[in-house]
Amino acid sequence: MATSAVGPGFLTQTTVFTESLGASFGFVILTSIIIDIGVQLTIWRVIAVSEMRAPDIANRVLPGLGGFISALTVLGGLAFNIGNVGGAGLGLQVLTGLPVTTCALLAAAMALAVFLVREAGPVMDRFAQLMGLVMILIIIYVAVTTSPPVAEAALRTVAPSRIDLTSIVTLVGGTVGGYITFSGGHRLLDAGIKGPAALPHVTQSAIMGVSVASLIRVFLFLATLGVVSRGLAIDASNPPASVFQLAAGQVGYKLFGVVMFAAAITSIIGSAYTSISFLKSLLPSVATHENRFIIAFIVLSTLVFVTIGKPVALLVWAGALNGFILPITLATLLVAAYRRDVIGTYRHPLWLAVFGLAVVLVMTGMSGTVLVEQVSGLFK
């Protein structure tokens, strides 16, 4: 879940919002962490105690809803995976100097190799953990070299000079929106970690997943803040690469290549695995040949990127779609948390239910605003 969340968009959003909000972006990060944990705990706990994937739970709540949610998730996952393939290609290009298309093909081949192994699940887990560790170590190094104003960042984290709601919603959607939050919940289910007895493990895993993604965001925030506080101009064409280069010169630029590659390839794997997991309960053939469908998903994403390039319009619409997926799925699982035919004797904490309802309302309002703006833009 953590490495699925940390993709090319994650790196760019964090850099851009830090540049615009300065130290006050710390408040945005803190708020999003609290929301992320609340959302993650609700969704993962319901999946674990019900021992069902999200589409099955949704169909129990309302027949046919599972298919609708699956369609949204797979469509959004495919669109974002095209961008992930491109991001992995950009990362490898920085390291090798080869054309982006060639590098994208190489990155896709590495992702495919994970699922060509007979026991793909454990290999996927270890690969994601290794890449996550690499990203953390490199970003910490870059953050230290920029000497950020840590005291000011700490102050503005609890007493911001400016609050930007849109950035909060963007961060929440990017960390636990769309397919991302289910990447961990479904993985635990496939690993046999389920039932009421597994709730302590599920809770620990949910908090750990959000914490790892948030740790990477915090250090990237500090690295960018250090650059901004020195009055250096960040290149708008590639903000995260600019931060790494300004912080540590050519070495920093090469390290950016490593981070971008690691972030993108783990997101390719997470997006493909989770998107296909939504189809397993709807189509029996998918469950029987899961790895083949995952491989086909990655191949399709790569072919679209190589033949058409990065479809910006599709990615923009996918962003709006991703914003809608979280409130729909969270609302569905909140209802399921009080359905005995789904969760049995499990009692969902009241504070999580209230918290979840507030997130549903806020995310619905913000996603609706974004959609209206995009539709209006089509007629200008």
Helix content: over 70%
Gyration radius, in Å: 20 Å
* Gap between N and C termini: 38 Å
Structural class: mainly alpha
**Secondary-structure element order, as H and E?**
HHHHHHHHHHHHHHHHH
Q: Quick one: how many beta strands? A: 0
Share of β-strand residues: under 5%
Give the oligomeric state of the chains in this entry, treating copies of one chain as homo and distinct chains as hetero: single chain
Overall mean pLDDT score? Answer: 85
Structure overview:
It is a single chain. The chain is an all-alpha fold and 380 residues long. 83% of the residues lie in helices and 0% in strands. It has helices spanning 2-5, 8-21, 25-50, 54-61, 65-96, 100-116, 120-146, 150-158, 165-176, 180-190, 199-229, 239-280, 284-288, 290-308, 312-336, 340-343, 350-378. α3 (25-50) packs across α8 (150-158) and α5 runs antiparallel to α12. The longest helix has 42 residues, at 239-280. The protein starts with a helix and ends with a helix. The model has no long low-confidence stretch (mean pLDDT 85).
Keywords:
single chain; 380 residues
In short:
With 380 residues, the chain is mostly helical.
Please outline the helices and strands:
Elements: H1 2-5, H2 8-21, H3 25-50, H4 54-61, H5 65-96, H6 100-116, H7 120-146, H8 150-158, H9 165-176, H10 180-190, H11 199-229, H12 239-280, H13 284-288, H14 290-308, H15 312-336, H16 340-343, H17 350-378
Helix pairs in contact: 2-9, 2-11, 2-12, 3-8, 3-9, 3-10, 3-11, 3-15, 3-17, 4-5, 4-15, 5-6, 5-12, 5-14, 5-15, 6-12, 6-14, 7-11, 7-12, 10-12, 11-12, 12-14, 15-17
